[in-house]
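Format notes (please read before filing issues)

Several people have asked whether sequences and structure tokens are stored in separate files. They are not. Every record keeps both together, in the order shown below: the sequence lines, then the token lines. Line labels are part of the format and must not be stripped during preprocessing.
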Amino acid sequence: MQRVAAGYDRIARQYTASRSAHLPPLLVEFATALPDGVPVLDLGCGAGVPIGTWLAKRFAVAGVDLSRRQVELARRNIPSATLMQSDMVSLRFPPASFALVVVAYSIIHVPREAQAALVARIASWLRPGGGFLASWATAAWEGEEEDWEGWGAPMWWSHYGAETNLTLLRNAGLSVNEHDVVTVTGDGETWMWVLGHAPDGCV
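Then the structure lines:
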């Protein structure tokens, strides 16, 4: 994970500038139904754009990122948020801490063998009826690029394919139906956005 942290530290500004302002429709749909002020977690928040800044308009946002430099930028972009630098694998929160956890383009940097336990912990952090929204790769791969996007920094990824990713969510006790899976293709890459639901109840 140190390779990932060092890479994002080095390219923090370029990466942030490359981020689309587009919000995942599943996020907008789920978050719109939440009460104002509930606690939400942006896990792998980067510089806080676009998701963290949007969430902070209505919710109590906690943001976590592996990169020190990204967290510094996030403090400027979402000053109302509670932000910390941490490896998400070692992160701990009390049960039922959040109404929503968002993990955008970041769980793919966690070693595959650690992902099942991580997803189970995230599921435990959800309030009854809470949501876990994440972007997943659609094919299995693990490896490193020496000069990612031509930005002068290495990067490393580790991920399963689509069906295994869905199995991880369901094994953690989260429900996922067809409506909760959206596949998006752009910039030559395909991503699967999935919204997992904790057992029903009030958030």
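For reference, the curators noted about this record: The radius of gyration is 16 Å. The first helix runs from residue 2 to 10.
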